[in-house]
From TrEMBL:
<feature type="signal peptide">
    <location>
        <begin position="1"/>
        <end position="27"/>
    </location>
</feature>
<feature type="region of interest" description="Disordered">
    <location>
        <begin position="31"/>
        <end position="68"/>
    </location>
</feature>
<keyword id="KW-0732">Signal</keyword>
<protein>
    <recommendedName>
        <fullName>DUF4352 domain-containing protein</fullName>
    </recommendedName>
</protein>
<feature type="compositionally biased region" description="Polar residues">
    <location>
        <begin position="31"/>
        <end position="43"/>
    </location>
</feature>
């Protein structure tokens, strides 16, 4: 008899505990809050019309002259490759579709510099970018201090920028 009372009490206590924990509200995580804020601003991660990352690979400069190009990331609207010399990473090469981030194209509006016939901007002390066809940002980032602004500009000119402009 005592066993049945204990068993009944245990079932009752667990039921109450389950009821209380299932009704408790949990504070949103920092990720939930960030998602809500970005959604309220009207931003989205990738737009449907964005080019596939794989379609950008053909416009990257080929390996050669002691440099090796190694693709590292490819997703809708973006492709990236490391540029290595003697096995050491010296630069990062990237193409991105600004349809996914329209504000990225705005920095080129006041550009006075041109590379390969396209507006160019410096991005900090290690980055140089061009805007191709008012849509595609092509960027070279130095990963080694010896890889200079002049090197970044020269590598930007090695991209098939005119071919990329035809993607529209």
């Amino acid at each position: 008899m005592l066993f049945k009372i204990r068993q009944g009490f245990t079932v009752f206590a667990l039921s109450i505990l389950l009821l209380l924990t299932s009704c408790a509200t949990q504070a949103p995580s920092r990720f939930d809050q960030a998602q809500q804020e970005s959604t309220q601003r009207g931003s989205s991660a990738v737009v449907k019309e964005s080019e596939s990352g794989g379609s950008f690979n053909q416009f990257f400069p080929p390996s050669g002259g002691g440099y090796e190009r190694v693709y590292t990331q490819e997703k809708k609207g973006f492709a990236e490759a490391k540029l290595k010399k003697d096995g050491k990473e010296v630069a990062m090469l990237a193409i991105s579709d600004t349809l996914n981030n329209p504000s990225a194209a705005k920095k080129f509006e006041k550009s006075t510099q041109m590379i390969g016939g396209y507006p160019a901007v410096s991005q900090g002390s290690t980055g140089t970018a061009v805007l191709v066809g008012d849509r595609f940002q092509v960027k070279v980032l130095s990963r080694d201090p010896a890889f200079s602004e002049g090197d970044r500009q020269a590598w930007l000119e090695k991209f098939d920028l005119n071919g990329l402009a035809q993607l529209k």
